[in-house]
């Protein structure tokens, strides 16, 4: 019996949202697509969130991923940037949850470790490793799409290891795993 699934990887952002898709057939990865949603030309933060949601829904409805892997926000010093990034991630997650696609989030260091063996690898090192692994002829100008692809590949490598990231199969699972965040 042939086991087949599609994994959508997302690198959320309010300037550029990167994404990549892989297909797994009998435990072997195949590259499907990578691209980005360029949001630089928009000033309205709420419009950017709407576009992230709509693009994620479009990707889900077009490619029917079985799972979504999303990069978790890293902790930075700029609180406003963190808030915007968290909103972008939340909107992408909400799109997946609305279509009942299971979501797993991975820390940036975890993704880098899965791809390169070094949790402190540069974006360029991650991109070069993915290029070799998946037989990509060229690399995109912006590496955000490669970061989305890296999330998908990280999920492939960590399949079945629930302790690696947080997984949500729907709204109820999200609420149950985040009870402290729910206002009563």
Automatic annotation (TrEMBL):
Q: Pfam families in the record, alphabetically?
A: RuvC (PF02075)
Any idea which UniProt keywords this protein has?
Cytoplasm, DNA damage, DNA recombination, DNA repair, DNA-binding, Endonuclease, Hydrolase, Magnesium, Metal-binding, Nuclease
Q: What is its EC number?
A: 3.1.21.10
Coarse class of the protein's main subcellular location: cytoplasm
Q: Which InterPro entries match?
A: RNaseH-like_sf, RNaseH_sf, X-over_junc_endoDNase_RuvC
The active site lies at 11, 71, 144
* GO molecular function per UniProt: hydrolase activity
* Cofactor(s) listed: Mg(2+)
Q: State where Mg(2+) 2 binds.
A: 71
Q: What's the superkingdom here? A: Bacteria
Q: Where, by residue number, does Mg(2+) 1 bind?
A: 11, 144
- Family classification: Belongs to the RuvC family.
Q: What does this protein do?
A: The RuvA-RuvB-RuvC complex processes Holliday junction (HJ) DNA during genetic recombination and DNA repair. Endonuclease that resolves HJ intermediates. Cleaves cruciform DNA by making single-stranded nicks across the HJ at symmetrical positions within the homologous arms, yielding a 5'-phosphate and a 3'-hydroxyl group; requires a central core of homology in the junction. The consensus cleavage sequence is 5'-(A/T)TT(C/G)-3'. Cleavage occurs on the 3'-side of the TT dinucleotide at the point of strand exchange.
Q: Please name the HAMAP family in this protein's record.
A: RuvC
Know the name of this protein?
A: Crossover junction endodeoxyribonuclease RuvC
Classification from the root reads:
Bacteria, Pseudomonadati, Bacteroidota, Flavobacteriia, Flavobacteriales
